[in-house]
UniProtKB/TrEMBL annotation:
GO terms for biological process: amino acid transport. The lineage of its organism: Bacteria, Pseudomonadati, Pseudomonadota, Gammaproteobacteria, Oceanospirillales. Residues 1-26 form the signal peptide. Keywords: Amino-acid transport, Signal, Transport. InterPro entries: BCAA_transport, Leu-bd, Leu_Ile_Val-bd, Peripla_BP_I. This is Amino acid/amide ABC transporter substrate-binding protein, HAAT family (TC 3.A.1.4.-).
Amino acid sequence: MSKKLLRRAGFLAATLAAGIFAGAQAAQPIKIGSFLSVTGPASFLGDPELKTLEMYVERINEAGGVLGRPLQLIHYDDAGDASAARNFASRLVRSDRVDIIVGGSTTGTTMAAVPLIEQARTPFISLAGAVVITDPVKPWVFKTPQSDRAAAQRVLQDMKDRGITRIGLISGTDGFGRSGREQTLAVAPEMGIEVVADVTYSPSDTDMTAQLTRIRNTPGVQAVFNFGFGQSPAIVTRNYAQLGIDLPFYQSHGVASDRFLELVGRAGEGLRLPASPLLVPDSLPDTDPQKRVVQAYKSAYEQRWNTQVSTFGGYAFDGLMLAVEAIERAGSTDREAVRKALESIQGYVGVTGVFNMSPTDHNGVGPESFRILEVRNGQWHLIQ
C-alpha cells in the first residue's frame, strides 16, 4: 500500500474513532446530584422537592434532554440530619461524580455540605433559606429561596404600612429560626420598628403558651412575628388563638404551604406571611410575568402527584431550571463554565421570583419577590 493510501486510511480511522468518542460523549447523561430531607421532621420540604425534581427530569428527557444528553437524577435522603447530608454530598462529588447539585432542604444540611462542595469545586444550588448560605458569597454556592433577611424586610414593611412600630418576636432555636431572628433584629431598627419582646422556643417544645403570654404582657406590643418552620409554627398559631391575643399575627415564609393551613385550622384566620405567588396563582394579574409559570407548575405538579402544590417544591423547580439554563449557556458541563453561567443569569422568570444573579449575588431575588398573603376562611388570599 502506498504511503498516500496509508495516510488516508490512518486519517479515516482517526476520524471514525473521534466520531465514535463524540457520540459516546453525547450519549453520556448529565448527572444532577441531590440530597434532600425526604423523610424526618423536614419531610414537608424534601418530599415535594424530590417529587418536583423527578417529574421535571422525566419531562426534560422526554423533550430530548439537555445539549442532546439525558439528565440523570442521583438523590439521597438525609432525613434532615446534617452529618448524613455531609456524607451524601461527599458521595455525590467523589463517587457519583455529578455535574451539579440541586438540593439541601434545610439550612443545617446545606451548610454542613458547603465546605466539601466548595473544595470539590462543584456548582451547588441550595433550596434552603438562611442568608448565610450565599452571604458572604461562596464561589460555588447558589440558592433559590429568598433569604430570611428578605423575608424579615418584607414582613416589617407590611407592618410599617399598617402603622405598626412596636412588635413582639418569637422564633425557633433551630438554624432557620435562629438566623431569621438575627436578621429581623438587624433590619428592624433600619425600618423604624422596635422589637420590644424577644422570646424563643425549642423545636421539641409542644406548647409555647408561656412565651406568648410574656409577649402579650409586654407593654406597647402592636403585632407579633413568628420565625420558624416545621410543626412549631402551627403550635404557636394554635396557642396564639387559645390565648385570645387580639393583635396582628405574622409567620415567616417557612410555613408557606397548604399543609400549614390544615395544621392550624381556624386558628390561622387573619395571619399574614410572605410567600411566592405559587399559592395564589389565579389572583395574579395577567400582566404579571410569573403568572404563566406558576400556573403551569401548579397544574403539572397536582396532576402528576394528586396532591396540593407546595412553595418548597417551587424552590426545586427553580433550582433545576436554573441548572439547565446554566448548562445550556455554558454549552457543556464544564464546572467552571457552568458556575460562570449561573452568575450571568438575568431576568429568569421562575416560580419563586424573577432571578437576577451576579458575581456578588448568588441568590438573585429580594424582598420585592415576596407577596403578602393573608388567611381568610381557611384559604390564602393575596394582599399585595
